[in-house]
Design goal:
Elements (H helix, E strand, L loop, with lengths): L7 E3 L9 E3 L1 H5 L1 H13 L13 H17 L1
Antiparallel strand pairs: 1-2
Helix pairs in contact: 2-3
Length: 73
């Protein structure tokens, strides 16, 4: 699945020179979101993880989902 197609880039937001990455389309599609979490989980040796920390408003969404994968192992 091409996850980049689920991330919209908003140029010059919130100010000129900054390109905001809008992940709302990724969050709205459960299959794409699950695929993104699955791919992130493949990058981590889950047996060495004690905690996931999600910093900022978007990070906690992904940290919680990654933690749920860790529970299934």
């Amino acid at each position: 699945m091409d996850l980049k197609s689920y991330i919209k880039e908003v140029p010059d937001f919130p100010k000129e020179g900054i390109n905001f990455k809008d992940i709302q389309p990724l969050l709205q599609d459960s299959e794409a979101f699950y695929d993104a979490i699955d791919k992130m989980g493949e990058l981590i040796d889950m047996e060495k993880v004690d905690y996931f920390v999600g910093i900022e408003s978007r990070g906690f969404i992904f940290a919680a989902a990654l933690a749920s994968i860790n529970l299934r192992i």
